[in-house]
Amino acid sequence: METYTTDDALTIMGFGKSQALVLAYAGMGWVAEAMEVMLLSFLGPVVREEWNVSPQDESLLSSVVFAGMLIGAFTWGFISDRYGRRTVLLLSTLLTSGLGFLSALSPNYLCLLALRFFVGIGVGSGHVFASWFLEFVPAGNRGTWMVIFSFFWTTGTVLEASLAWVVLSALSWRWLLALSALPCFILLPFFRITPESPRYLCAQNRMSDATAVLERMANANQAALPQGVLTYHGETKTDYITHTTPDPEDEQLIPIREKEHTVEDAICSKYGVIAAFRKLLSHNLLRSTLLLWFVFYASSFAYYGIALLTSQLSDVNRSCSSDLIFELQQKDGNLYKDTFITSLAEAPGLILSALLVDWFGRKATMCCLMFACCAFLGPILFHQNELFTTTLLFGARACGMGGTTVLCLYAPEVYPTSIRSTGVGNAVAIGKIGGVVCPLVAVGMLRSCHQMAAVLVFELVLFLAGVACILFPMETKGREMD
């Protein structure tokens, strides 16, 4: 009997109206996440001023959000692999929008702290939106579409800076919190038309449901599905693999027929998260998993660090003893301007990664961008004039964003569908630790007048991340996600 796979179907139907719908929905999810993260740049100072909280409590407001994102990244990943992508899309959106709006009504600091922690858990689902979108994209141009998808993040950061500029000067921080939750509310009415990932359905042996999703997509794209019956993997590969020892890098491609249930499948069904971790740390995936954890940590450390420290590093005329929090309170216009500059710097980085990712491959692109980011930060070891410092930081932010975007594309391609969201979720969760640690290390050094030491930390982390990219065991350009 003639058969075809999900990748065969997606390749034939191409990128059309159905994928555009998924792109718009998942992209709005990333806009919401970016706005909630950028909100931290503006919320702390105004809350400190209104409720007269200590600088430590102000910093804690950001830390609890990242802690929530860490928990959410892991939890939503496991739920996505166990109960479906759409389940996570709905639950996380309800949590983020509902508690995001309620936090605007917080009567005191402790209530605000608790509500923002749960908002962080909801926002931690961002990687599921990305993986869900990628599972609908043909392999041939998946890299380019991931870069396009990443523009939604940049849109969210610019939109939040614009919103803060208008709202905080005319109204209050409560209005800013409420309006920042709007993108999630917009998603809710459109949830019913979002399709479940056909790859996930195949991995769950729900072949008829997967076929129905692909048929609706083909009709929307005015295309036809391949002749034959949908299989999780091509039947023709089975005869070869059953008689040979599989290459470790290609074990994810071993066919699994619709009715097959291996011992490992039974373990996964019974023990869930334990079995998922066992598979992530299995012989075939251990190297990829550990390297991904470190590179996600390094990327988050560098990304949030450069964004947080831009205003202080770019102004050499301020005294060394000036506090970063004080600087952010010094003049709202400077804060908004710096936020715009660092946010707009992401656009050229995304364009550069789009040109390279499907040409040179994932590993080479990530490696080059990490080392380039490291090179841009090098001269800042010593004090430079303001224009040169701003230019260097602009380039570093662009390369950092480009490298992170390719990393977010590479990670879902490494893992098989059955543990894709869990694997990516764990890596993203490790990355959030970098977001928490970065201000404590880098900002602390700068406050102590150790600019060279602070920049050296960034240099070392980025250099090691570039080396880790070289050590990744496989290149996934043009490779089937399963």
TrEMBL record:
Pfam families, per the entry: Sugar_tr (PF00083)
Q: Name one GO cellular component term.
A: membrane
Cross-referenced Gene3D superfamilies: MFS general substrate transporter like domains
Q: Where can this protein be found?
A: Membrane
Q: Where is the Major facilitator superfamily (MFS) profile domain?
A: 22-477
Key words, A-Z: Membrane, Transmembrane, Transmembrane helix, Transport
Q: What PROSITE patterns does the record point to? A: MFS (PS50850)
Membrane topology per the entry is: Multi-pass membrane protein
Q: What is its main location?
A: membrane
Residue ranges spanning the membrane: these are 20-40, 60-79, 88-107, 113-134, 146-167, 173-191, 290-309, 340-357, 364-382, 388-411, 423-446, 452-472
The protein depicted here goes by the name Major facilitator superfamily (MFS) profile domain-containing protein
Organism annotation: Urochloa decumbens
